[in-house]
Sequence to fold (83 residues):
Amino acid sequence: MVMLRYRSRSKIRNKLRTPGGKLVLHHRSRKSGNHRCGNCRSILAGVSHKNILSYKRPSRMHGGSLCTQCVKAIIINMVEGMI
Ligand SMILES: [Zn+2]
Fold:
């Protein structure tokens, strides 16, 4: 059994396959700080700084992962590709 301090739900658990073929759990703490855009790394608006996925995020496409400027650039590229 793992140590009691690692049994907390606030820890992230990763299943890893060891070179010997065993499946083990690795526990790590969540990253703190603001959510950032996956493209330009700017701080996202409308997203809680708490790193919990169940918290509300913007309902537009790529809400909670990309900023508005990056989504706008993607949409403009798509529309220009169609023309
Ligand atoms: Zn961005």
Q: What stands out?
A: Residues 34-83 form one domain. The radius of gyration is 18 Å.
